[in-house]
Amino acid sequence: xxxxxxxxxxxxxxxxxxxxxxxxxxxxxxxxxxxxxxxxxxxxxxxxxxxxxxxxxxxxxxxxxxxxxxxxxxxxxxxxxxxxxxxxxxxxxxxxxxxxxxxxxxxxxxxxxxxxxxxxxxxxxxxxxxxxxxxxxxxxxxxxxxxxxxxxxxxxxxxxxxxxxxxxxxxxxxxxxxxxxxxxxxxxxxxxxxxxxxxxxxxxxxxxxxxxxxxxxxxxxxxxxxxxxxxxxxxxxxxxxxxxxxxxxxxxxxxxxxxxxxxxxxxxxxxxxxxxxxxxxxxxxxxxxxxxxxxxxxxxxxxxxxxxxxxxxxxxxxxxxxxxxxxxxxxxxxxxxxxxxxxxxxxxxxxxxxxxxxxxxxxxxxxxxxxxxxxxxxxxxxxxxxxxxxxxxxxxxxxxxxxxxxxxxxxxxxxxxxxxxxxxxxxxxxxxxxxxxxxxxxxxxxxxxxxxxxxxxxxxxxxxxxxxxxxxxxxxxxxxxxxxxxxxxxxxxxxxxxxxxxxxxxxxxxxxxxxxxxxxxxxxxxxxxxxxxxxxxxxxxxxxxxxxxxxxxxxxxxxxxxxxxxxxxxxxxxxxxxxxxxxxxxxxxxxxxxxxxxxxxxxxxxxxxxxxxxxxxxxxxxxxxxxxxxxxxxxxxxxxxxxxxxxxxxxxxxxxxxxxxxxxxxxxxxxxxxxxxxxxxxxxxxxxxxxxxxxxxxxxxxxxxxxxxxxxxxxxxxxxxxxxxxxxxxxxxxxxx
Length: 737
Known about the structure:
Elements: H1 19-27, E1 38-42, E2 45-51, E3 57-62, E4 67-75, E5 79-84, E6 92-98, E7 101-106, H2 117-125, E8 136-142, E9 145-153, E10 159-164, E11 177-179, E12 184-190, E13 197-203, E14 229-230, H3 242-249, E15 259-263, H4 279-293, E16 297-300, E17 304-305, E18 318-322, H5 329-341, E19 345-350, H6 376-379, E20 380-381, E21 386-387, H7 394-410, E22 415-418, H8 421-425, H9 447-463, E23 468-471, E24 493-495, H10 497-507, H11 519-522, H12 524-527, E25 533-537, H13 549-552, H14 557-573, E26 577-581, H15 606-624, H16 626-629, E27 638-645, E28 650-655, E29 663-668, E30 674-680, E31 685-692, E32 708-714, E33 717-724, E34 728-734
Parallel strand pairs: 15-16, 15-26, 16-19, 19-22, 22-23, 23-24, 24-25, 25-26
Antiparallel strand pairs: 1-2, 2-5, 3-4, 3-6, 4-5, 6-7, 8-9, 9-12, 10-13, 11-12, 13-14, 17-18, 20-21, 27-28, 28-29, 29-34, 30-33, 31-32, 31-34, 32-33
């Protein structure tokens, strides 16, 4: 760590600061302003020194209002000094005056530090798990005064100052105290409260003033395009979600129904003038809609502060601040609480894979590559032109791990979906030979990132039982969702990108050609239980010219709708948790754009309403039938009934679980009805049709089996003969009389 340059604090025989100290304070170049400013003992008495630009006269008072001494101006820039009539060291208030008026201020340099040696120890060790209670801006009472305590990590800086409207953004006025063992700079500024914009002015190790930096631990930010951090009261919401949280603490999410509605908060709905809904407005619309549609969870694309709307939040500059786009941070707490009271979980998209290089952000934070690697072969992301966190640095790991814990503790979120995990795991991700640095063993695996992910998962699951983590990991990295003590990364779930890719490829083919691609459907079951999977039909599939899920289906309009309904029922019957991006539940026709709301008027049209009703009914079935969810991640809950009928593009399997009747899922992915089709079933008796995506209520042709089929023992086996409607999926539940 580069030590800050200091100017020695020397006093003359009368206790006056040296001319060099005075000049350095006025110029803002002094490396240790606490050695000069504030209250100092001199010859068994006390002297006060302060820097108050614009003042011509300054009188010192105690916090109780007792006059303590007149200070004389040593420098016209605003340096004052004078003897005090005090018997003990204590904080001071100053009455400053000039020809234009007068004002009061409390001297930040007359207060002692807030952080202590235990903080130093755990911060230096990288084991501090409550950094968000220590770093950033906290409204506190300290030594008899109210104000804000600021603390920031910048170990290589020569000077760090808090700047804001309270000091005319003048970095000379509130230069901070450095804690040399940790590189943390801190300062208690009295007399300011919540709602004050601020940044850090940092002089780098080369003496160059950097662009003003937002606080990495800011709990609130200005609305873009402004980029300052904002002082904020701690969340004061009174939670009423204990029943929801207690349920999930005691549940095994692998055996629970998890059906996720993925939402971009900035474009789900908008005001008529195009402005964003507040969290409270979203709560009033989105939560009832999700309850009605039957999803169990809302997963938000990143809602932490970010400067650029088209990044969708994935290039975040404020990991600890809910975006100002949707109102105050307490509004997000109210949203989560409201969702929980309605029985809905809230998952956040979380981005530790990279961060943007905006001047006010983390890049080159103290004039050095602090959060990122200095070598661009490890510290620069070629796909997104962003920086990559240095996962080998304990302070950086601690920053990120604490952030995961922060959202779970302060905002009661139910899970974190971790974006772009594959880009973290491989040193050669999107890099050619010579553009990356092998690990210590000569391999391509980022061992430091592996260690970080394992630690993050251990801390989250250890401190917040009931919170799940989900990896978007697009390769075959082993044991992503296995425990760390078994050599896994420790995630609760992993997105099944293979399912998404193979099924969308299959349904893009004209039905007549699907018999040649039968393996696109069956192959997924080879690895379906190798991880705890979430089946994702996410935002990634409906942007950048990819169209919508409806547009991806082959055939004319009727066939597209029929195939989409059949696909959804196929997916809801397939092992794995479910995720669907907003708008796809009613067959959005236009490709998603973050700049406009979804086309809600489509729900007025029968085919779109039919798709929504299909999803609603599927969610109800999925949640109410243990066979469809309680063994999503275990092979004993799945068995093929028909796997090789490629000629007819028919698939059938059985889902089962303790505590519920088995359910047969049968799909016919051609537009040809299959009469007298024989499906083997495990038990003789009545099998009730619990969904048929060809039902007229959904917009289908209405073909079916009168609500039930009868399975009989014939020819050494049990089977039922039935009609398979065109481009449909049906589910049959064993329902003996």
